[in-house]
Amino acid sequence: MTGTLAPTKPLTAQDRCDRCGAQAYVRATLAGGADLLFCAHHGRKYGETLRASGAEIHDETDKLIENRLRGEDHS
To answer: pTM above the 0.85 mark?
Structure first.
């Protein structure tokens, strides 16, 4: 094992937050290899704690800004 993580697949509209069920924009890959998915809110809430415990965080919350600029805000 080289110690590098394989690239993660981009999150899609079908990926849902494990905490509340909203669309996921953050993936936390735990040290053991399991993934947790979070919406932007829960990603911010738990991200630092997860990172401190060794999780790799893949954050796609910039998609929210891109969607708003294109007029695709569905909130």
So the answer is: no
- Separation CA 20–CA 59 (nearest Å): 17
DSSP state of 35: E
Beta strands in 1-75 (DSSP E): 26-29, 35-38, 56-59
| Helix (H) or strand (E) run with residue 51 in it | helix 40-52
Asked if 40 and 27 count as a contact pair (C-beta separation under 8 A), the reply is no
pLDDT < 50 regions, the chain: 1-5, 75
> Residues 41, 18, 54, 2: is their CA dihedral positive or negative?
negative
